[in-house]
């Protein structure tokens, strides 16, 4: 009985690890682009478009810019970092596995650059 509890706790810990807050963005971005627009303008364009697709999308301020997060129930959240870069912005999009990526979010990002 005790080994079942230990195994259950281990599985719970592993599953929790899959849904850690995205304060630590993993690896290289799937998309990295430059925009001549300032971060505030890019974020103001992207956020409502992402919210149309995923209603619980949020935006927070980060150092020199903004982070927009579209939560996912199944896989990793889709994260867009928009930071001040030269006379514009550098945008970095982090998406989950290929089968879970949202083409609509990527398209709206391209449209806003």
- The class by helix and strand makeup works out as alpha+beta
Helical segment tally?
Answer: 3
Strand content: 25-35%
Element string (H = helix, E = strand): HEHEEEEH
Query: What is the global morphology?
Result: globular
The strands making up the biggest β-sheet line up spatially as: 1-5-4-3-2
Helical percent range?
25-40%
CA gyration radius, whole angstroms = 17 Å
Major beta sheet, specifics?
5 strands, antiparallel
Overall number of strands? 5
Distance between the termini: 57 Å
Number of domains: 1
Low-pLDDT regions = 10-24
Mean pLDDT: 81
Strand and helix layout:
Elements: H1 2-18, E1 31-35, H2 39-53, E2 58-62, E3 65-70, E4 78-85, E5 88-94, H3 103-112
Antiparallel strand pairs: 1-5, 2-3, 3-4, 4-5
Helix pairs in contact: 2-3
Question: Main traits of this protein?
Answer:
113 residues, alpha+beta, 3 helices, 5 strands, globular
What does this structure look like?
The protein has 113 residues and is α+β, with helices and mostly antiparallel strands. It has one domain (27-112). The protein is 37% helix and 27% strand. The chain has three helices and five strands, in the order αβαββββα. The protein has helices spanning 2-18, 39-53, 103-112, and strands spanning 31-35, 58-62, 65-70, 78-85, 88-94. Strands 1-5-4-3-2 form a five-stranded antiparallel sheet, with helices on one face. α2 packs antiparallel against α3 (103-112). The longest helix has 17 residues, at 2-18. It is globular.
């Amino acid at each position: 009985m005790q080994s079942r509890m230990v195994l259950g706790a281990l599985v719970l810990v592993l599953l929790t690890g899959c849904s850690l807050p995205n304060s630590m963005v993993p690896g290289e971005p799937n998309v990295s682009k430059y925009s001549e627009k300032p971060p505030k303008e890019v974020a103001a364009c992207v956020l409502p478009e992402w919210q149309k697709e995923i209603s619980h999308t949020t935006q927070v301020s980060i150092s020199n810019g903004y982070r927009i997060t579209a939560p996912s129930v199944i896989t990793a959240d889709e994260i867009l970092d928009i930071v001040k870069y030269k006379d514009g912005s550098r945008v970095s999009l982090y998406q989950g596995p290929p089968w879970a990526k949202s083409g609509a979010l990527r398209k709206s990002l391209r449209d806003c650059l």
